[in-house]
Amino acid sequence: MNYPQLKIGHMIPMFPIIQGGMGVGISLSGLASAVANAGGIGIISGTGITVDEMRFHIRKARANIKNSGYIGVNVLFAMNDFAEKMKAAIDEKVDFIISGAGISRDMYAWGKEAGIPVISIVSSARLAKMSERLGAAAVVVEGHEAGGHLGTDRPLFDILPEVVEAVKIPVIAAGGIMTGEDLARALRVGASGVQMGTRFVASEECDAPLSFKEKYVQAEQEDTVLVKTTVGLQGRAIKNHFIDLISDDKKVKIKNCKDCLKNCSYRFCTLDSLITTMNGDCENGLVFAGARVHEIKDILPVKTIINNIMSEYQACL
Fold first, then answer.
1. Fold of the CATH domain 17-207+297-316
2. pTM of the full structure
3. Are 100 and 74 a contacting pair, CB within 8 Å?
4. What is the pLDDT of residue 48?
5. In whole angstroms, what is the distance from residue 42 CA to residue 30 CA?
């Protein structure tokens, strides 16, 4: 059948699905290239890795893509190395760059000069209009159901119609997207596609360690909580020993400050805690996950996940 066509700049993927950029070390070349090969759009997270490591994963992902798949890089404005990562991604000629945790006028100018689409992650119609005016090629609208750092306390489907009405550029729905039914609902509201992070973590090709993926599969509905991180935003994570340590705004001794944020509360080290889980210790670091993580019951190949979503979508029509 003919699926709805998502078009952002030169990118026209087979399916209107973008994989979320998840750091630290969760979405690198393995996951991004698998999603691109399966007909979606893959994203490498530049958070918590060096510029050289990011370049390595861009090149490795490109080498792994069999046909004309698309990969981009997620770089966070809140990080000290934002500009350096942006310029390195442009130098590597990625298909697009996506950014959240703030907006920079420069990033749109840099993208335009290089002919590379820049996509903004937003949580309101006001920010979407600002992004469009500054030169964003598309916006990802992220609702409260998302995993990781949250920019709003409003559900996705409350915000989505307002953003669709406010801008003319493609709008991508994100936060709590898990099934083909969710895709169909987003498209009916006027979105051009969806972004999914949590479901792709529990995939065979995801770059996260097995212990991280198992935390997702084992999660119950009551296991996800909101915690305020040193970024100054609330983040959604799965309960573990580390969550107990930082609950109620408690401080944890920082053993290894990464000096990564433009503004930090220094209550603990968010980046170091994410590196801890990337290294396989999922009790003593942050395990970010979306609100519907408990619905995931198995670890599947990326291609199977995407095919299942599109079959569910077809069944909704």
1. TIM Barrel (3.20.20)
2. 0.93
3. yes
4. 83
5. 10
